[in-house]
Amino acid sequence: MWGSDLEAMVGRNETILWRGKPNKKCFILESIFNPMLPFALVWGLVDLGVAGGVFFVADPMGVMLPVILIFLVFHLMPVWLYIGGVLLSFRKYKHTEYIVTDKGIYVSGGAFAYTYEMKPFTDLSHINIHRGIFDQWLGVGDVVTVCAHTSSGTSSGHGSHSSHGMSICDIEDYQKVFSMIKELQTDIYSDTMYPNDLRPRENHGYQTEYTKKDNWQ
Q1: N or C terminus: which one in the chain shows less Cβ crowding within 10 Å?
Q2: Residue 201 predicted with pLDDT over 70
Q3: Choice between 173 and 201, residue whose per-residue pLDDT is larger
Q4: Which of helix, strand or coil describes residue 194?
């Protein structure tokens, strides 16, 4: 019996070394204070100022009130989109999950259309830690993985990924996960490049079991 849809993607020959979810408070705060917030505030204040001026100065009797309301409903669309994105962040949080196995990284997310993705360690070229303002305040961080010829970046994070990389965002044990992924990526990539006992003594072929996974369980 699977614990989650993401766990159901894990292969039978894989061992789950770590699993978790983002810190809920940080996840929601990053959704609220996103780059669209200043734009939505300015847009809303300008629209409300214009509508208030028309209503109280040019139309004190309220004859044009229905027209003003219709104007606000449609012209405040950027504000509604921002508010909708914040409200959807609660649903996105529910479906965001991370799993690290001895083969790769699994990430799930989405509000209505769910996404389940896996990135093997052999595809990774860089692993970074990113800590924004709210991450530092709440004692969490992002582990950002990057593949060759891609640029790192988390923007609003939340399990997002670049064109090829993948991020584990807003987690409390980000240092442990960073060290784990770094060691796994180094060992497994080396085993893939040197499959014939040319590197460690305990490696007797590419299909052998990863021997250090007990260190992370």
Answers
A1: N
A2: no
A3: 173
A4: coil
Whether residue 123 is predicted with pLDDT greater than 90 in this model: the reply is no
Evaluate whether 167 touches 147 at the Cβ level (below 8 Å): no
How far apart, in whole angstroms, are the C-alpha atoms of residue 52 and residue 117? 48
pLDDT at 34: 85
Q: And the tokens for 188? A: 């497994």
Q: What are the residues whose beta carbons fall under 8 Å from the beta carbon of 210, sequence distance 6 or more?
A: 102, 184, 187, 188, 191
Distances (CA, A) of 215 to 102, 176, 211: 11, 11, 9
User: Cα dist. 206→105, 124, 178, 210 in Å?
Assistant: 19, 17, 24, 10
- Measured from the Cβ of residue 198, the count of other Cβ atoms closer than 10 Å reads 10
Beta bridge partners of 43: none
Q: How many CB atoms lie within 10 A of CB 50?
A: 14
Predicted model pTM? 0.73
Structural tokens at position 97 = 């999950």
31 touches 40 (CB < 8 A) = no
